[in-house]
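input
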Amino acid sequence: MNELKHVSGLCVDVEVLIMGPLQNNVYIISDGSGTFVVDPSCDAETILAALGKRKLDGIVLTHSHWDHTGAAAELKELTGAPVYASATDAPDIEDPHESGTSRVARACSVDVRLSNGDIVQIGDMKWKVMETPGHTKGSICLFLIPQFGNHEGGLPVLISGDTLFKGTFGRTDFEGGSMQDMGASMKKLAALPDDVVVLPGHNDLTLIGNERATFAVFGDEPDHQ
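output
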């Protein structure tokens, strides 16, 4: 049985399930008026059980790899929730193929195609979309400031998918990967404040401020915004 873990101290309510053979972090995020799931790896029924009586208002996919999209189609069928993904990776989610990751997820239609700077509003949350290619051509991160969460005193949040991890960055050796693109994405994330909590696709959570050495691999950091 997958254990549902609660993350404290954030500007929104975040729960995480660790699921699948690659130990993916599947996030359930809510502000009390809206709820969405990030990167449903597998086992839609377990995710539904974790949701309980909450209505699912969205399914957000950070990129097209099978271990992040595996249960998206079934979860969409069971709940009617719309699927959000980048416009660039949407074709690979809707028509998946083997791309060096050894497995292929079930095809899932994408309802909302996102681009850099778009706002994903679910409930009263307003998440800013950041295009962060490097792991895939269409990888995205989503950023939320406390003003748009339900805990004003909590920390801001970045959903990073497989772009940024604790102590490292995502692999670039799959189809669509690029070290040059990853470098540009790291510099973009390095501009975020130190206190932003990073929710990665695998492994432990981290803070932007703790990843300065990761960003420095790609050269000088930009000024903080």
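quick obs: The chain has a mean pLDDT of 94.
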